[in-house]
Specification:
The chain has 299 residues and is an alpha/beta fold. Helix content is 40%, strand content 13%. The chain has two domains: 131 residues; 154 residues, 3-Layer(aba) Sandwich (Rossmann fold). The longest helix is centred in the N-terminal third of the chain and has 18 residues. Keywords: Glycosyltransferase, Transferase.
Length: 299
């Protein structure tokens, strides 16, 4: 049995689920979810709700006893982290792993009975089960009439690319703002021109958690070719972005993950700077790098 702990917003939850799914699939064991973060989330974190049950995911909630069986108590985990941080000495637990940014070999060497924590960016951990993820990350219910309306916009003689502006808690939440960057307007203008140079004329479908700001503050080269997406739930936007021909993303897992799930031969325009920490930022870029990804300066 593999247990993972989804945290954060929709894309973070889906990525944690997918990482756990890849390890569980490799071992041929069940995947279970520890949902305790949503019941007792830290005050400094953005108050996201558990939402991935809107998709056809295949995992049950782990019981308290199952979590306790695999995960050491908080005191031992804290001691482990302190020792590893200040002394560089790894303290292994047989049924628990909280090491971030594991190599592929390290990841797939993890045991089959495990509580898995840590940070896992990009697609390298989950690429082997992409077909499974594509099947499961589909809404359980029929699409809404409004979503259908936007999907009809994609049936056009001219390609439609998504463009995602992430602001929200990257600005309003002090903890998030100290860690994440915010893409500049110049990044988006450069990305729009770069994509046109590659594919010719196209239309834009605009997604944002602060659409009012985009409408008031960002000038598109051709407003007649722009469609603002509003009134949809986040999981509907996530699916809609993945159906666009190409994707201009922000430094956000929400737009990156949907672009990676895109079934078409898409170009992904991505910022070069995702977070302020240079070492972590380089890890993220390395984990996102692919033949269809174009990195552009965003400051």
């Amino acid at each position: 049995m593999i247990i993972v702990k989804p945290v954060g917003g929709l894309a973070s939850q889906l990525h944690k689920y997918s990482v756990g799914k890849a390890l569980a699939y490799k071992h041929g064991v069940p995947l279970k979810l520890d949902l305790s973060w949503f019941e007792d989330r830290p005050d400094t974190d953005t108050p996201w709700e558990y939402v991935i049950d809107r998709f056809d995911i295949k995992a049950e909630e782990a019981s308290v006893s199952e979590v306790k069986k695999l995960k050491p108590c908080y005191f031992y985990v804290k001691i482990k982290r302190l020792v590893e941080k200040f002394f560089g000495i790894e303290i292994p637990f047989k049924s628990y792993s909280n090491k971030s940014f594991l190599s592929i070999d390290e990841f797939f060497s993890l045991p089959s009975n495990l509580y898995l924590e840590g940070e896992f960016t990009g697609f390298k951990y989950i690429e082997s089960i992409k077909d499974i993820i594509l099947e499961e990350i589909k809404p359980k219910n029929n699409i809404s009439s409004l979503q259908k309306k936007y999907l009809e916009c994609l049936i056009d003689s001219m390609p439609v690319a998504s463009i995602h502006f992430r602001r929200g808690d990257f600005i309003s939440n002090k903890t998030a703002a100290n860690f994440h960057c915010v893409c500049s307007s110049s990044y988006y203008h450069t990305a729009i021109m770069d994509l046109e140079a590659r594919i010719g004329k196209y239309k834009l479908m605009v997604f944002s958690d602060d659409l009012d700001w985009v409408k008031e503050s960002f000038n598109f080269p051709d407003n007649d070719s722009v469609t603002y997406v509003e009134g949809l739930q986040d999981f509907e936007e996530f699916q809609l972005m993945s159906m666009c021909a190409h994707n201009i993303i922000s430094n956000s897992g929400f737009s990156w993950f949907s672009a990676w799930l895109n079934p078409y031969d898409n170009i992904i325009i991505s910022p070069k700077k995702w977070v302020h920490d240079k070492n972590i930022n380089q890890i993220i870029l390395d984990d996102l790098d692919s033949s269809n990804v174009v990195f552009i300066e965003n400051e």
